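To: structure subgroup
Subject: Chain for Friday's discussion

All,

I'm putting the inputs and outputs inline so they're searchable in the archive.
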Amino acid sequence: MARWITALLTAAGLVAALPGAQAQEPVDVALVLAVDVSRSMSPRELAIQREGYAAALNHPDVVRAIAQGAYGRIAITMFEWAGSGSIREVFDWTLVETADDADRLSALVLQSMPLAQRRTSISGAIKHAVKRLDEAPFDGFRKVIDVSGDGPNNHGGPVLSAREEALASRIVINGLPLMTSDGPGGGFNIGDLDTYYSECVIGGPGSFLVPVRSWEQFPEAIRRKLILEIGSLPDELPAVVHAQALPQPLRPSTEPYDCLIGEKIWEQRRWMFDEP
């Protein structure tokens, strides 16, 4: 069916067919999973996060959502991030069309052993995700960056600049703020991380965030988030906050939110780490 759709669009002139060049394979979504592994995450949290992504990627509801798309397939890649330049690829761009495809990705994530790194550069993660989307060998009808993190940006360039770069390329950014306090670097976190993500990180048509307030919520939260990003809406979506509903439901104040709060906290407390 997907190949028939591609042929029909090509015949209609909606997919370019250049002499000597092969058009990129179309997919419903080109999705980048950008996963926080900063040192504010404890080993236990890193393990729960890894296992949660693995369980979500091959969950029957996620596989079913993929099959319900116009093309019946998505392209996905995943990397871990911390400070600016601290990037580790978990798996490269991969086509997911069947349950077997999803099982292979889940196994790759389970085999991954994340290593906590210093600092938190959401801006660096977004910039790297934009680069990965530019390099994608697939033509995503929608292009989405899925950013998870347990603290505000405190390294690299300003997060607002990185967000604008992504939005200018018609990329949607969704957020998974991890509002937990088990890790060793809690002094650099903020209590209103969901508001920070809504004001400073997410953006684009239909963008949303899913706050995680306890690690017990994480497996279900990431599964439901993937289903939304793929494009199939489950019956119930608790704790999902859409961009269209922001900022008022999260922040009653009309004062502008300080998207440099993470950098300011770092300046106040960086003596603890003797690091620029």
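Points worth raising on Friday:
DSSP finds nine helices and seven strands in the chain.
The chain has a mean pLDDT of 82.

D.
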